[in-house]
């Protein structure tokens, strides 16, 4: 029997609605959520392809021996992690969460860390620092007279780019700044400014200042570091333009409101200072090298999918895949959306249950 259930797309922080199509319990496809106010019946290929990762789903709690998963059971793996935790000081535990964790998962993980006594908790923020200032919403893009995009919004966040297209239809001017040769965003811009380093980025920011005012919106999905982000923030505050950072994961903004986004170097420091590392729904090798993690700590990997990081873990607990999760995500514009589980891929503990058992 075919079933269609609504959830939120896990593939970027725009926050589009997505329907999951299941047949006899197995996920077989996706379908756009017609009445969703953000994407209004459209999903990009990244969103529609989110279910492809189920091909690498980890089904059983496992030990990792010589890089291979050796199936075990949840009680044994939890006991193995607790044994490691019992042998360390509180400050020797580090926890790396993810921008894919729900707000409720992050609350549970944060509580576990506080009760254990460690403040070494964070998630990779893709170079974005914590920010809490006023942010624009998607309707601000629709109504803007001038839009500055930093990064490839058309390629990576197509349903936010759709708002730029709608604004351009109403004669909005559109500039793009990026460090690539020419992206699809650059090809659609009235003017493209390519930068190559921090100095030319600062020049690019300064060169557009005269175009910006309170009817302008700056949309960015890429930044080199906190210093460059400050340049963009200052550009917005000095001109009255609204600012909309579109972050990497579906709950980047929610995670950022609760715990610190960390840089690559900060995560390496955190790993270097720990004896036990719990990683929740993140592949550290997306942004670190093998030498940054290999042989440094006992790694408990709470992960739904087998990837290149799996073999560097000591134990793996599957948790729930994104279609099985329920909870809330806070999207780029700060909208918190709740969702129920849209599929059941098998038995297993949720991330929240795992941390309750570890406590
Ligand atoms: S724009 Fe982002 S949230 Fe929307 S469908 Fe595409 S990947 Fe998913």
TrEMBL record:
Identify the gene encoding this protein.
Answer: fdhA2
Q: Which residues form the 4Fe-4S Mo/W bis-MGD-type domain?
A: 2-58
What PROSITE patterns does the record tag this protein with?
4FE4S_MOW_BIS_MGD, MOLYBDOPTERIN_PROK_1
Keyword terms, alphabetized = 4Fe-4S, Iron, Iron-sulfur, Metal-binding, Oxidoreductase
By its UniProt entry, which Gene3D superfamilies does this protein fall under?
A: 3.30.200.210, 3.40.50.740
Q: Which GO terms describe its cellular component?
A: membrane
| KW Iron (keyword) present | yes
- Which BP terms in the Gene Ontology apply to this protein? respiratory electron transport chain
GO MF terms listed in the record are:
4 iron, 4 sulfur cluster binding; metal ion binding; NADH dehydrogenase activity
Ranges in coiled-coil conformation: none
Write the Enzyme Commission number(s) for this entry. Answer: 1.2.1.2
Protein's name in the database: Formate dehydrogenase alpha chain FdhA2
Query: What is the superkingdom listed in this entry's lineage?
Result: Archaea
Q: Which organism is it from?
A: Methanobrevibacter ruminantium (strain ATCC 35063 / DSM 1093 / JCM 13430 / OCM 146 / M1) (Methanobacterium ruminantium)
Oxidoreductase is among the record's keywords: yes
Q: Name the PANTHER family for this protein.
A: FORMATE DEHYDROGENASE H, RESPIRATORY NITRATE REDUCTASE
Family the entry assigns: Belongs to the prokaryotic molybdopterin-containing oxidoreductase family.
